[in-house]
């Protein structure tokens, strides 16, 4: 199918506007709830750790064990989405993770907490790479970074809005229905995911060819544009085995590992770090106050990463837009350790999170240089990269908690976070060749060779 030439700019504007209105709000809500249900344990820990007898390292293990099932089922889940369709599979993921998240309200000790967190990881597996693939299935390459930044708003928003919401539920809902505040938190934030999963089943469309809510010329333009962009060379078609052995795919997984290590460590432990500032301020924080202070770094990161994503799209440059925020964020994390001022700590964490999140949107434009198209090979590559990165979700919180138990402070863990950010930045600069000229689009893997 050819791309219409006459009035194509007007058709593109009209089509993309419809796509954004139809798809992006639900994707934002999905990822907001997904990330909230994944990390609300960080707020529950303010009360849950004492009730269940968890040390910092035990809490870190409970946070990290989620990623075992998540990693093991990531690739199969993403390929299943291609088989069953995005509408069915994304809805299935949302309903099952919501049920598993709500079940955490009934944990009775460390063992049951570990088991439920692992089950939650299995239920959530595939959503993030599935949404990444969904964006690639619906939006032209030059629009994808902006679209990714829009649905990835769910990450910082889950803390900007979720932190005060979660801590308010704990503070004001304690004792309601005879439940501890942290138990009510899991129940209250798990059920909405089930409802949104049902909404996704009836609202989403799996592929552009099936989009009856687009006009005929809009659907023709979109399908033709995507087919032209996603033409893979013959030797790549169906080459899933070759894709998972591609060293550049594996190294991109290392980059994501370093990016995500600090994000998970800080996300799970930041409320406890904020609570620890009580001594510095000479006061006592309520749960809600902890939530409000925790939201500040994520609010800063939200503004920073949206601006950076637009700048990356405007310039068409991805490599430096991925590496530079990580290097600057690493410096900020080290600075907040060296400074004793609590305000500097919050500012350093804010800039560190900004660097981690800002690099993510540019990063997800890089796999298109390695694997062309949006078929099984591309789905496998995205899922494999995300699997390697998701492994940091196990190591990050667990190691961060162990270092806290061993040293009595969070300083050593923050140094490790900065080190992984530098590793990611250096790996990007070494592995991804510099590009000049026109903005990047999805390309065959042969263009990757430096």
UniProtKB/TrEMBL annotation:
Name of one Pfam family that matches: MFS_1
Family matches, as Gene3D superfamilies: MFS general substrate transporter like domains (1.20.1250.20)
SUPFAM superfamilies assigned: MFS general substrate transporter (SSF103473)
Keyword Transferase listed: no
Keywords assigned: Membrane, Transmembrane, Transmembrane helix, Transport
Domain (Major facilitator superfamily (MFS) profile): residue spans on this chain: 23-436
PANTHER family reported for this sequence: PERMEASE-RELATED, TRANSPORTER, PUTATIVE (AFU_ORTHOLOGUE AFUA_6G08340)-RELATED
Name this protein carries in UniProt: MFS transporter
